[in-house]
Amino acid sequence: MSSAPRAGAGPDAAAPDLPAPLVSVVVPVRNEAPNIAPLVGEIEAALGAVPHEIVYVDDGSTDGTGDALAAARAAGAPLRWLRHRASCGQSAAVITGVKAARGRWIATLDGDGQNDPADIPRLLARAEAEAAAGRRTLVAGHRVNRKDSGVKRYTSRIANAIRSRLLRDATPDTGCGLKVFPRDLFLELPHFDHMHRFLPALTLRQGGQVVSEPVNHRPRVRGVSNYGTLDRLLVSIFDLVGMAWLQRRGRRPEIERDAAP
């Protein structure tokens, strides 16, 4: 079911020969050149005391995103990136980034600067506490004070209400791009187009746990959104049908004992 495309042979397609970081920050982008340097700087400031790497996936950008990524890496950021030859969507970019990541933990961020990297350490600490208690948990950001347009907030409320009723994923804001989760858990999930919208439901289907944490949300100040409002709502509702079907077909076997003689 994987929808991950073949990534182009970008400048950082191979992992550098360095110790694995604790957390990999995966950022999918398309035509976000003016947001690269500011966001990389904020990630670095937030995670200065945490072993980390930043993994950008350029989803077929046609602006100067590649040049901006090269400049950020030249400035010393622990930055790697891969490029899709053609745009394949946000979920495909996240899948590519997580597969390339080397950290035990994954933090995802939208590339438009609306998510605040300063929230990552708190979500990471919550995820580590859950792991210490023996739980594999996705920590989802909850934008309690969204800085989007009224139309976008309204359509999001509709989609969230329908999704919550059908999937019962115990998450008030699945659309928030800021999430922290174990890399190995993500790799066990079915991968398909638009899966990023259903990560909480997919995590529960896999036997994991989901918790939400309030996070900061900021207005977009650079660049232009790659998504429309109505088309995103219609696609989300259509995808819910497929996700509900998938959720009801999942079975997790319980291993009672080692069957080896």
UniProtKB/TrEMBL annotation:
CDD domains linked: DPM_DPG-synthase_like
Give the Gene3D superfamilies listed for this entry: Spore Coat Polysaccharide Biosynthesis Protein SpsA, Chain A
Q: Which InterPro entries match?
A: Glyco_trans_2-like, Glycosyltransferase_2, Nucleotide-diphossugar_trans
Residues spanning the membrane: none
Q: Does the record's keyword annotation contain Transferase?
A: yes
Q: Which residues form the Glycosyltransferase 2-like domain?
A: 24-186
Q: Name one Pfam family in it.
A: Glycos_transf_2
Q: What does the UniProt keyword field contain?
A: Cell membrane, Glycosyltransferase, Lipopolysaccharide biosynthesis, Membrane, Transferase, Transmembrane, Transmembrane helix
**Protein's UniProt name:** Glycosyltransferase family 2 protein
Species in which this protein is naturally found = Roseomonas nitratireducens
